[in-house]
Amino acid sequence: MKKQILLLMVLGILFSCSNDNDNYNDEDNQNEEQTIDLRINHYRNTSVGEGFFLTLMVQGDSNIGSDNWTKFYNSIEGFEYQPGFIYDIKVRVEQVEDVPVGGSSLKYILHEITSIQEVSYDTPFDIDIKINGQSLIGKTSKHKILNQIEIDCNGICSELNKKLKNQDFVTGTFKRLQVDKIQLTKLD
Fold it and tell me: Does 137 score more than 80 pLDDT?
């Protein structure tokens, strides 16, 4: 009887040690970096975080090739985005140990650009230009989104100004004219 109890105790200790080691290895695997595929769209949209800013529109892994694009709130170290191109890239994702207040626990680093496809200047795209009552169009002599992208109103400046004044949310449909200039074609 004592031998059976002793055997059960030894087996219990062995299994508990084995489980501790397995958990340790799982934590090590979680801290390891991974590589993911991303598709970056040919334009940036506006976003709200700690203030308003322009953000990349992306598709990840299983969404690549679909109509589902999401706003990407992080930066990608080593990636130099240029409007007018769709990029397929591989990105290394690492855990950040000391996460800054309001920051991400993940760091994205460009591993490889697998393809770049130029998009026709006539390809339409939508940008949110007023969010929650806050206009993202600068108050200068020219209409600019967040003082970065110039807008050619294409004859509908008065309609744009009216919607910016009277609506809480405004989305514009645009086409690209230059790297930092777009043309408004429709308002929603």
Answer: yes
